[in-house]
């Protein structure tokens, strides 16, 4: 442990000796005390946080398709032709591609048994199968990652290649494509996409509601422990398509889009378990991103849906849209506390389902926007809280983590920063990163005039200013070749040397054998070191 010693005035250099003792004692304390930052704890890996493939976040820029089709398939093909295509893939030894095509053929037979009510889904799936055949016949192979296919086969809908499922129409991705065109002023393309979306809607009826439009996903969805069979609908898809239809009306003034909007709005009045997308309680309506269950209640998809309904209302002033929007607002403000983990936000209501950095940021942005629209205080409260977490907390460092206090304090002080929301406690820390932390702790501003103290630290490094500022303050870490070696991981001995140089303290005394100076330091250990020194007035 660190102890405070009262320094007598006549011992002029006592403070430096005290610091040397402090540096050594912190390292020894870390090594011997269980539960300290020197104790090796199980590494918390950056798990694959849940997200729906290509169907959640808006896509600001669309890449060019990485495919060159030989013979684009622009019409539906017969079941026998589909079977022949599968056999050709098998004959060519493309077994995985054949398996993905077969998955869709089996699914098509199941949907066809549903009778006339499933005719649109059957049509959509047949289009998906045709696109899958076209995709593989062009030389593309089955892969482990999804790929968005824009303007596929010359059409206006967006398709996505999904591992194990083949190529499928995605209404959310298509709507996002339309929004991208709208932002760029390509209004003709927006109208074309809106028209093709309406042509591919499933038309249903519900007692007391009447006719409504629905867009469904024709592939199975696996989400954590849940498996939702195709077809399944999405409130987020309904909302985004509604927004596109509203923009088509704004562009053209054609009342057919207002009529179509009425049918889309009707889908929000149908319960999720009876063919709609809405879960209702005493507070209001929750529009389900995955309308195959009411167990998830995915936050970002719901907030996107509210934003989309409001966008449509702004164009049409439809009172039904206003009522549906306010029913969602009342529901949201009543349940936001369920998504507050005290250091991060939850993606859904599933336990431990923390949002990724990107989705957490989406929560913040959408809550701010909804507050600007409604002035509902709950939106501002949680936008501010989640925004604070975004800047000062980490996904993998909950309040129960033994180093939560140290890491959080240093983050709030601006010593530790992150661009992806992860801290990586057991990741080894590099020399350059530790020097950055130390410089911020000591208040050393980055140099603005490049002097080139080290041969391997050029101006193109983002942190050269911190490294040269440390050099100017006595932390000179040149090896025998004049190199800094910024990416080398530092050891205990390195850290002790750096801290002592920062305070001009002698390190002549030999460390005991059990100090293990060669052991590398983790980011957690480095954070604890700086925190404990700063809390005792050393930094």
From TrEMBL:
<dbReference type="GO" id="GO:0015012">
    <property type="term" value="P:heparan sulfate proteoglycan biosynthetic process"/>
</dbReference>
<dbReference type="Pfam" id="PF00395">
    <property type="entry name" value="SLH"/>
</dbReference>
<dbReference type="InterPro" id="IPR010598">
    <property type="entry name" value="C5-epim_C"/>
</dbReference>
<dbReference type="Pfam" id="PF06662">
    <property type="entry name" value="C5-epim_C"/>
</dbReference>
<dbReference type="InterPro" id="IPR001119">
    <property type="entry name" value="SLH_dom"/>
</dbReference>
<dbReference type="GO" id="GO:0047464">
    <property type="term" value="F:heparosan-N-sulfate-glucuronate 5-epimerase activity"/>
</dbReference>
<feature type="domain" description="SLH">
    <location>
        <begin position="390"/>
        <end position="513"/>
    </location>
</feature>
<protein>
    <recommendedName>
        <fullName>SLH domain-containing protein</fullName>
    </recommendedName>
</protein>
<dbReference type="InterPro" id="IPR039721">
    <property type="entry name" value="C5-epimerase"/>
</dbReference>
């Amino acid at each position: 442990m660190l102890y405070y010693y009262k320094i007598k005035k006549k011992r002029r250099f006592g403070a430096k000796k005290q610091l040397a003792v402090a540096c050594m004692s912190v390292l020894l304390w870390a090594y011997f005390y269980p539960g300290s930052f020197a104790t090796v704890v199980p590494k918390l890996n950056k798990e694959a946080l849940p997200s729906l493939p290509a169907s959640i976040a808006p896509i600001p820029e669309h890449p060019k398709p990485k495919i060159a089709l030989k013979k684009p398939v622009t019409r539906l093909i017969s079941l026998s032709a589909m079977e022949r295509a599968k056999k050709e893939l098998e004959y060519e030894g493309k077994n995985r591609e054949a398996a993905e095509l077969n998955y869709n053929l089996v699914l098509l037979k199941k949907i066809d048994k549903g009778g006339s009510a499933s005719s649109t889904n059957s049509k959509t799936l047949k289009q998906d199968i045709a696109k899958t055949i076209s995709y593989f016949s062009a030389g593309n192979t089955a892969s482990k990652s999804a790929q968005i296919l824009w303007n596929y086969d010359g059409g206006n809908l967006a398709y996505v290649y999904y591992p194990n499922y083949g190529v499928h129409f995605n209404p959310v991705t298509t709507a996002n494509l339309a929004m991208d065109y709208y932002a760029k002023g390509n209004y003709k393309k927006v109208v074309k996409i809106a028209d093709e979306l309406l042509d591919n809607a499933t038309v249903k009826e519900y007692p007391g509601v009447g006719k409504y439009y629905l867009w469904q996903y024709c592939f199975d969805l696996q989400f954590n422990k849940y498996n939702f069979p195709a077809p399944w609908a999405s409130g987020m898809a309904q909302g985004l398509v509604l927004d596109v239809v509203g923009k088509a009306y704004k562009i053209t003034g054609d009342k057919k889009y207002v009529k179509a909007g009425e049918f889309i709005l009707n889908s929000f009045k149908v319960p999720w378990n009876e063919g709609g997308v809405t879960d209702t309680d005493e507070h209001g309506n929750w529009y389900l991103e995955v309308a195959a269950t009411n167990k998830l209640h995915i936050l970002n998809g719901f907030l996107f849906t509210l934003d989309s309904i409001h966008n449509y209302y702004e164009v049409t002033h439809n009172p039904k849209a206003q009522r549906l929007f306010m029913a969602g607002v009342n529901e949201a403000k009543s349940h936001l506390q369920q998504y507050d983990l005290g250091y991060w936000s939850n993606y859904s209501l599933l336990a431990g389902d923390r949002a990724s950095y990107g989705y957490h940021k989406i929560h913040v942005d959408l809550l701010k926007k909804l507050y600007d629209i409604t002035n509902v205080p709950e939106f501002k409260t949680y936008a501010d809280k989640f925004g604070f977490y975004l800047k000062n907390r980490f996904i993998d460092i909950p309040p129960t983590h033994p180093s939560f206090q140290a890491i959080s304090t240093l983050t709030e002080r601006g010593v530790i920063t992150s661009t992806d929301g992860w801290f990586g406690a057991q990741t080894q820390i590099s020399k350059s990163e530790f020097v950055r932390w130390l410089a911020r702790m000591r208040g050393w501003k980055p140099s603005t005039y490049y002097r080139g103290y080290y041969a391997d630290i050029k101006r193109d490094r983002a942190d050269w200013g911190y490294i040269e500022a440390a050099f100017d303050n006595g932390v000179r870490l040149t090896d025998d070749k004049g190199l800094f070696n910024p990416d080398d991981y530092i050891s205990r001995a390195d850290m002790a040397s750096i801290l002592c140089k920062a305070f001009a303290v002698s390190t002549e005394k030999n460390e005991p054998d059990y100090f293990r100076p060669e052991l590398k330091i983790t980011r957690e250990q480095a954070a604890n070191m700086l925190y404990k020194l700063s809390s005792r007035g050393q930094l």
